Amino acid sequence: MGNTLVNMRDQRFILFEQLGIDNLFAAEKYADYTQEVIDMMLNEAEKMAVDVILPTYDVGDREGAVFADGKVTVPAIFHAALKKFNEAGWSCAPASPEVGGQNVPLCVWSACAELFDSANFAFMMYPGLTMGAAMLIAKYGTEEQKNTYMYKMFAGEWGGTMCLTEPGAGSDVGATRTIAKRLPDGTFSIEGTKSFISCGDSDIYPNIIHPVLARIEGDPPGTGGISIFIVPKFRANEDGSIGEPNDVATGGIEHKMGIKASSTATLNFGENGKCIGYLLGDERSGMKVMFNMMNEARLEVGMQGLGHATASLEHAVQYAKERIQSKHIMEMTIPNAKAVPIIHHPDIRRSLLWMKSHVEGMRAMNYFAGYCIDMEETVTDVAESAKWKGFVEILTPVIKAYCSDKACEICSLGMDVYGGYGYIQEYPMEQYLRDCKISTLYEGTNYIQALDLVGRKLGANKGMNLMNLFGLVDADIKKAKESEEMKAYAPHLEDAYNAAIGIAMQFAAWGKSASVMLPVMNARPFLMIMGDLLIGWQLFQGALIASGKLDAMYKEAGAEGSIAKKRALARANGDAAFYQGKIASAKYFACNVLPAIAGRCKCIMLGDKTPIEMLEDSFAG
Ligand SMILES: Cc1cc2nc3c(=O)[nH]c(=O)nc-3n(C[C@H](O)[C@H](O)[C@H](O)COP(=O)(O)OP(=O)(O)OC[C@H]3O[C@@H](n4cnc5c(N)ncnc54)[C@H](O)[C@@H]3O)c2cc1C
Predict the structure, then answer these.
(1) Which atom number of ligand 1 is nearest to the Cα of residue 256?
(2) What is the CATH number of domain 8-139?
(3) Would you say the C-alpha torsion 24, 26, 30, 36 has a positive or negative sign?
(4) Given ligand 1 and candidates 131, 437, 442, 451, which is best to mutate, with the most ligand atoms within 8 Å of its CB?
(5) 119-130 pLDDT per residue, tens
(6) Residues near 149 by Cβ (< 8 Å), separated by ≥ 6?
(7) CA gap 511, 35 in Å, rounded
(8) How far from the centroid of its chain's Cα atoms is residue 588's Cα?
(9) Residue 162 · residue 326 · CB < 8 Å
(10) Ligand 1 within 6 A of CB of 89
(11) How much is the pLDDT for 330?
(12) Is 208 close to ligand 1, i.e. is its CB under 6 Å away?
């Protein structure tokens, strides 16, 4: 039996059978990789997730991060787990060998990250933010900055964060008030307060390197005037060792609903005028630089959603097979009929398939995004590379917002499958729901993602990025129409696809008219439509492959044309059961989710402006 976090058969299916990542190995960057190597890597990732990270999950929640005497401590078990994580080389696995990494393809890293995140995302925030901040220095840092900070961060010796938010600058990053004053030696004196900084302080790393957004004195207001600085908690001595404190004080940490062991700190920079910052990249290019980390972090938050959702699904399925309650509906009138495992009740089966289809679709979409980045970085043709990049740009806000929103629904439904026990702390379901919720809020709220999708991404490259992506969907609709197994379901995908195209065109028209508020107001429903459409497409793609594999298996077993024989084969053969499950996910999604898209698009098309036009005083009270 597998673990209770992630269906690793599905991971391998998406990587090897759906994406066909073998074609990546031809690139020099991935020349050391083979399917066997990746198989071994996934097994090692599973061991790390189950044996090392998972035991930190409920302990982290119970003990949490603690602030006392100006210092933050995290549970002792986190220290031991991080040491093992770093020693195994995971702290910089996707980075290049020059900095200690292994060039792990990002689609494969996505699969590893799903395992780690499903075991404990609050723990993973420490190494995750550290790697993200190190990547920034790798891309924009000077040789000196790389030598001083980056290698230690990639090795997991020093930690990293991302410092954007301030009490008055949340979604509106341009309102940043932190100031950088020029010093004669070319460094800057940093003064200001950053709030809600994840892993902003802790005793898990002896030094923490903060990439901080600040405005150089005299620079213009708004995002265009913001620069980014490396601000260490402790300055580094010339020999690389930890030197004197850098006037970064922790004001406190937040008491939160979930991810309690990830410290969320208020950081006061330069209370004594002695906080030194080192410019990273060019002056006034802070947002451009930080967006590198933000885009990665947005994909990572989508993965957080997936991680919680898959763990909730796997637990719910196992529980539903074990929990005995109520007679089967067909035996209700038989007085002495036995109670059955709840997985035999239709509503539980419907719930589990709703969860399963969404989890599998989100998994495929996340890995596809990783694959797009791998392709962007390895194909030699410039136009081809730009095409893959265009996919990533559209997918990033969709993955962040859709996967986090859906994950909350999945975790809630997972709790329902447990009944009252789901609400009780002895079972993990209530923690999944609590831990999951933050993913809709941070890294830019889901509305901010929707605004990014509608305001920036739809029309980018004259709409070609969207059209190229839709071209892939269209090609699979055509394939589905040719498939015996899926042709009856293809019209649902096609109708959803046409309805979504209609909205994209309507948004473009409204954008040029007096109704410009309508796309802005409907951005979030549209993003969710895009998410449903894209994961529906991914599920169809998977079902078409599974159907081809199953046909060959049925033929070999002489089971063609006999439902009973096909079911018997699936009971005896795990692969056959898995492929049947892939087809079931796509069919369920086609019949129960995709048809609603046309109706949701119709709602948007009505152009209702009531929320905009009504008085503020009419909302409540
Ligand atoms: C646990 C936790 C960890 C965090 N970690 C970090 C971190 O590591 N680094 C960091 O820099 N920040 C971090 N944050 C901050 C987080 O990114 C912000 O909370 C988030 O961006 C929203 O900002 P805000 O809370 O000020 O909400 P606001 O910006 O005040 O938004 C309130 C509401 O208004 C909406 N809204 C705002 N502007 C608009 C608009 N133009 N149009 C329509 N609606 C709008 C928002 O969508 C939201 O629904 C963290 C937050 C939490 C809670």
Answers:
(1) 1
(2) 1.10.540
(3) positive
(4) 442
(5) 999 999 999 999
(6) 134, 137, 141, 158, 209, 230, 232, 236
(7) 47
(8) 24
(9) no
(10) no
(11) 96
(12) no
What pLDDT, on the 0 to 100 scale, is given for residue 1?
A: 56
- Distance (Å, rounded) from C-alpha 502 to C-alpha 608? 17
**DSSP tag of 176:** -
* pTM of the predicted model as reported, rounded to 2 decimal places: 0.97
Q: What angle do CA 160, 163, 169 make, to 5 degrees?
A: 165
Tokens of 162: 């991302």
Q: Is the dihedral of CA 310, 315, 318, 323 positive or negative?
A: negative
* Per-residue confidence (pLDDT) for residue 621, from 0 to 100: 87
> Tokens for 483?
């498939």
Tokens of 350: 């419907």
User: Minimal CA–CA distance to 178: which of 135, 228, 140?
Assistant: 228
As beta bridge partners, residue 339 has 327
> Token pair for residue 84?
């093992």
Distance CA 367, CA 532 (A): 16
H/E element, 438: none
Q: Which two three-digit tokens encode residue 526?
A: 């549209």
- pLDDT over threshold 80, residue 145: yes
Q: Please work out whether the CB of residue 304 comes within 6 Å of at least one atom of ligand 1.
A: no
- Our answer on whether the CB atom of 65 is closer than 6 Å to any ligand 1 atom is no
Strand partners, 181: 189
Q: pLDDT tens digits, residue range 56-78?
A: 999 999 999 999 999 999 999 99
How high does pLDDT run on average in the chain? 97
Binding site membership of 255 for ligand 1 (Cβ less than 6 Å):
no
Contact call for residues 192 and 269 (beta carbons, < 8 A)? yes
Distance, CA 448 to ligand 1 centroid (Å)? 9
Q: Which tokens sit at 66?
A: 């603690």
Catalytic site residue from 36, 44, 443, 485 = 443
Q: Which tens digit of pLDDT belongs to each residue from 229-284?
A: 999 999 999 999 999 999 999 999 999 999 999 999 999 999 999 999 999 999 99
Given a contact cutoff of 8 angstroms between Cβ atoms, the answer to whether 124 and 56 are in contact is no
Q: Is 163 in the pocket of ligand 1 (CB under 6 A)?
A: yes
482: Cα within 13 Å, side-chain hemisphere: 10
Phi, psi of 166 (to 5 degrees): -130, 165
Phi, psi values for residue 230, rounded to 5°: -85, 120
Q: What token pair was written down for 490?
A: 């293809």
- Residue 558 tokens read as 């002489």
Which atom of ligand 1 has the smallest separation from the CA of 441? Answer: 20
Going from the Cα of 172 to the center of ligand 1, the distance in angstroms, rounded, reads 8
Q: What is the DSSP string of 234-266?
A: EEEPTTSSEEEE-SEEEEEE---SS-TTS-EEE
DSSP state of 111: H
β-strand 188-198 against 264-269: which pairing, if any?
Answer: antiparallel
